[in-house]
Amino acid sequence: MEMLFSTYDLAGLPLSNRMVMAPMTRARAVNDVPDAATVTYYRQRASAGLIVSEGVPVSREGMGYLFTPGLYTEQQVAGWRLVTNAVHEAGGRIFAQLWHVGRISHVSLQEAGASPVSSVARRAENSQAYAWIVQGLAGQVPASAPRALAEDEVPRVTRDIVAAARGAITAGFDGIELHAANGYLFEQFINGELNTRLDRYGGSIANRLRFLLDTVDALAEAIGAQRVGVRISPFGRLNDMRAFDDEAQTWLTAANELSKRNLAYVHLSDQCTIGGSPVGDFLQAFRDAYRGTLIAAGGFDKPRAEQALQRGVLDLIGFGAPFIANPDLVERLANDWPLAAVDRSTLYGLHGEHGYTDYPPYAGDAA
Ligand code: PHB
Q1: Which residue has the least CA distance to atom 3 on ligand 1?
Q2: What is the CATH number of the domain that holds 65?
Q3: Which of 99, 182, 232 to mutate to test the pocket of ligand 1 (most atoms within 8 A of CB)?
Q4: Residue 343 lies in a domain
Q5: Is residue 366's pLDDT more than 90?
Q6: How far is ligand 1, taken at its centre, from the CA of residue 65, in Å?
Q7: What are the pLDDT digits (tens) for 194-242?
Q8: Residues catalogued as catalytic
């Protein structure tokens, strides 16, 4: 029996298979609120063992991309409630990915044109936000220069994230995934090359991990550790994250600390498909250090997924772009049916149903 299609107990939440729909920004939410198209999109993909939603901004400050549906207003919570209802009615499970982009934002997205926030006041090079080129014209723009969060402001960001997590539970999500990967706010604190702070959030490994671990603890206390997952990208280079001293030790310390917390899971983002660095050889070292459910996403096909499960290096496998183009990806892989290719030109932005909910399920030889 193939393991990919076997059931899994995710900290008490039964999953019908080991396939996770990985979080993917779609930037299709007019007014940043999930709508009927969002409901259809996720319902179509509910045969995944677990869906992790697209990145959900926890606050206006945490937003770096236009049309990303947040969890900080009542309308957004109500919109997500319709999504989770639809996924549950279709027999699926869904976590909300809670996202604060830090410095990968733009003044046109921020309240009153404020600067984005980060660990330090250093602009991300070669990094784009999706914002207003001019009012009314959306497009890729270089990330704005950030300001450094003051020491006593960091707990406020944690509180914003906890508030969004409570909103996620109100909206009916089965749990949340804290986005600490891909060069966004948490990694801007963890990375020792960027984070040159002299206070309790910079310097030592413990200090650079403090914001992440304090936030994880606050989330666990608010909604239960079994409902909290964490996404990280060890050795990732996306969004101007550079190599730093004690990089392996930093991530192994994170693995040990997260192990103690009995979380729903840790989810590794392998950036091989999104222009960063693969987790590669580090995966086994991380597996050895982390005792708990481990997921990785990025570049898997069925044979590689099955092999990672059989070897015990991963418990669940994330699939990204294949889930966009194949709403019935689970059935296609189970039956070895051919896969549709994703249309990259409609990945992001307000293209209506096109490239969003109009990918059909497999129609057999008649197609
Ligand atoms: C993207 O929009 O391409 C994107 C967003 C969040 C990520 C990675 C990629 O973590």
Answers
A1: 25
A2: 3.20.20.70
A3: 182
A4: no
A5: no
A6: 9
A7: 999 999 999 999 999 999 999 999 999 999 999 999 999 999 999 999 9
A8: 184
360 assigned to some structural domain:
no
Long-range contacts of residues 127-134, Cβ cutoff 8 Å, at least 24 apart: 127/183, 127/239, 127/240, 128/104, 129/64, 129/65, 129/101, 129/104, 129/105, 130/27, 130/64, 130/65, 130/66, 130/348, 130/349, 131/64, 131/65, 131/66, 131/105, 131/106, 132/66, 132/106, 132/108
**CB within 8 Å of 198: residues ≥ 6 apart:** none
| Tokens 């002299």 sit on residue | 198
Q: Which residue has the tokens 């309308």?
A: 75
Q: Which residue, among 163, 130, 132, 136, has the nearest Cα to 59 in the 3D structure?
A: 163
- Provide the residue count of the chain: 367
- pLDDT tens-digit series, residues 310-325: 999 999 999 999 999 9
- Total number of domains constituting the chain: 1
Residue 120 maps to a domain = yes
CB of residue 25 inside a 6 A radius of ligand 1: yes
Question: In Å, how far from its chain's centre is CA 343?
Answer: 21
pTM value is: 0.98
- Distance (Å) from CA 159 to ligand 1 centroid: 23
Domain hosting residue 82, numbered range: 3-319
> Dihedrals φ, ψ of 117, to 5°?
-110, 155
Is the CB of 175 within 6 Å of ligand 1?
A: no
Q: Is 69 in the pocket of ligand 1 (CB under 6 A)?
A: no
- 273 Cβ inside 6 Å of ligand 1: no
Taking residues 178-196, report their average pLDDT.
Answer: 98
**Is 114 part of a structural domain of the chain?**
yes
Cβ atoms of 270 and 234 within 8 Å: the answer is no
